[in-house]
Amino acid sequence: MQIEIEVNGQILKTRKGDILLSVLNQNGIRVPTLCSMEGFPPTGACRLCIVEVEGMADLVPACSYPVEEWMKVNTHSARVIQARRTIVELLISNHPDECLYCFQNKHCELQKLATELNVMERKGRTRQFTRKIDRSSPSIIHDASKCVLCGRCIRICDHQRVSALEFISRGTEMRVGTVGDKGLSSSDCISCGQCIRVCPTGSLQEKGHLDELISHLHQKQQQVIALVDPAVMVSIGDELGFRSGKDVSGLLFSALRKIGFDQVHSGSESVDITMFQAARLWKHTATKGPGPSLISFCPSWMQYIENLRPDLMSCVLPVLSPAQTFGRLIKDINTNSYIVYFSPCVGSKMESQKAEHQKEGIPYLNSVMSTRELIQLIQLFGIDFDRINNEVPDSLLNSVPMSRLLSSLSGGYMEGLMKAISVVDPDNYSLDGNKAKFRGPKSCKKNIMLHYTIEQKWTACSTLDEGINLIDQSMQSKYPELFEIMACPGGCINGGGQPGNKSDKVNKPRIKEIYDQDSELSGQISQLYAEVSKVSKKLPVLELKAKED
After folding, report:
1. Between 20 and 30 A from 333 (CA), which of 133, 250, 457, 540?
2. pTM attached to this predicted model
3. The pLDDT of residue 549
4. Which domains does the chain have, with CATH numbers?
């Protein structure tokens, strides 16, 4: 039922029962909030979205208040603004004065709110907060002193079906910690980094390796080699002054060489190698009988299996992730090399520290740095992108990459696998439909492959919750099913190490750029397969082990 309400003297049309905050946002009226997250039910925890409703004695939280016919709302009355200022002042009274060297400086939502509401000084300190920094995780640092108790991290962790975080204690002693308060390394954390992306302050951040890298670049005791993940190439441009989604890979390769890297490689090659390895194993998944098979190079998803679903380990195709594939190949060629992987994924930091990805205690990937850290590196070395030229990456293969940037998106590995299978097993499969079935905004996308006369269902998911449910359902299926699972919504393009705004306004241009660059490459795929076959023989079989209690 459509109704009318009055907001700041303006008549707005909406539907009865709609949440007031959503109605305001849809009509371009911004109301501040710290706890609200799109797609999640409201909690009303921060109270910053309070508004004045005529006829009501108390201010009401817009995030949880349903609209009623002919209600009159004032979103920025003197009373409302003063109440919001008081809330921010109270938050700041319990917050450390570390803005200058905080991870979130200039990106902190609390800092922006203080500026917006003209809160220019600390009015007092309500209590002394004992600093407690959890550095136990190989990927994530948790600084409880910067927490504003918005609960975003807890909600996103629950949404990931991990539930490693919770509120601890009550009243003035309440804080966010891991279940059992034993630290991130002893929790079920899968290092997806989504908690970092939703945290409004610097309470959660990635474990950085910038100082270590700079030391290696200056000392030159080893050949320093960079690997740039495809998802980085279309997400970093926003932060460097380019239009959203622009592929700046050529300029990025040039910038990294100017910084001092001896070699700079595109991650697309490594993706191609893993795709052809997976293609050779694919026909075994189609003929093994009913049940799920899993193909995924998402470190956080693999950690989820180890931590919470070890029963699925036997379903995983034994193929190394693209980054680990690259590390093994380079170390085989040049043992005295220091490899830096620039990744959209915080989970890659955790993956590189696993024993199976090390040799004599030294990781094949010596350092994993997020897109955010790459931006810091470029700014530190003063690279002016307006004054450098596009350059091509160094290469392991004498061919054009097949996958290009597709691996950045959920469903991209499935598309790459289709192309690889068309060369590896061209006479024994057919595809019902086309690659478009793995594209679009849906969190889970499905298609059907036919191997000989055997039907196999293919599903790509970028939500652990829905993906796990579908995998469990496939246990009872009459058909073999193949799943590609990613832990971050939409895929690596929204990885835990990515910078900037998380809205669709940013992601849609990035997605368009990725699909615009995609091509079938026709006859070049056969040439690429011949190249891949030569190098892939050097790679070991992936071994998964369950996490020990």
Report:
1. 250
2. 0.91
3. 47
4. 2-76 (3.10.20.740), 123-206 (3.30.70.20), 213-536 (3.40.50.1780)
